[in-house]
Amino acid sequence: MKKKWGLVLVVLTITGIGLFFPSIGEATLGDRTLKKGMVHNDVKELQEYLLAKGEFPYHTATGYFGDITVEAVKEFQKKKRLKVDGIAGPQTNNKLKVLRSGDMGMPIIKLQRLLKSWGHYNGTIDGIYGSGTKNAVIQFQKKMSLTADGIAGPQTFNKLNDKATEVANSTKELTVESTAYTAYCDGCSGITKLGIDLRKYPDGKVVAVDPNVIPLGSTVEVEGYGTAVAADVGGGINGNELDLFFANETSALNWGRKSVKVRVRN
Q1: CA distance 244 to 264
Q2: Burial of 28 by CB count in 10 Å (0-12 exposed, 13-18 middle, 19+ buried)?
Q3: 3-state DSSP helix/strand/coil percent for the chain, to nearest 5?
Q4: pLDDT for res 243
Q5: 131-143 and 106-117 are packed helices; what angle lies between their axes, rounded to 10 degrees?
Q6: Residue 128 carries which DSSP code?
Q7: Which tens digit of pLDDT belongs to each residue from 82-105?
Q8: Which residues of 59-74 are buried (b: 16+ CB within 10 A; e: fewer)?
Q9: Residues 6 or more apart whose Cβ sits within 8 Å of residue 172
Q10: Does the keyword Signal apply (predicted)?
Q11: Which one, 95, 207, 214, 246, has least CB within 10 Å?
């Protein structure tokens, strides 16, 4: 959906890989009712699930339950035929936490890591619920004598989470070749892979990535650019390349192409 400025060269060096906690098993969405005005880690997780389903159009999961989150919750409630009040209570949260084909982002990264810990997923941790992830879920469900429908719901996660303590979030540092883009090039829609409307939120810090290197939904700290979310892909982004969003063409051209250090957290 974008135009790049500058020839992209291929440079990638993994300089370090580390782990940080809390672990995946400590996610608590659903333990409490969330509503407008709240600031909490649970709200951030709520936003990540909404984003995974294309219902949270903002560029960053902030942890603040504001008007944008209220509207996103309402849209999800409408689609699921729930009471439309913009409040994330037990029914809404339980529906949100059911993952299926087509979902993308941080919740899928966590699902893939859990499946890998059980030996049922050998693919790339890319944050995309595609056929590989669905097949892995089906195989896991068969092993656990669950309904093998390829949908990761509460029963599936109850079993998966038996190994949650073995799976931690991760961070890695890379050196990549970067270019820049805007949302206003010829033929551009301004809508990212995760559904973020960059024309509506020109202040967004968003990067386009190859999910095989940086999973969709990851937080990416880019030298000289700031902290961004990996929310887009592109035909010209392969392997060790990164494309940074800028609000206008002048800023994109000024960035040009350069080798930068990045820290990826997911």
Answers
A1: 14
A2: exposed
A3: 30, 25, 45
A4: 95
A5: 50
A6: B
A7: 999 999 999 999 999 999 999 999
A8: bbbebebeebbbebbb
A9: 14, 16, 17, 18, 263, 264
A10: yes
A11: 95
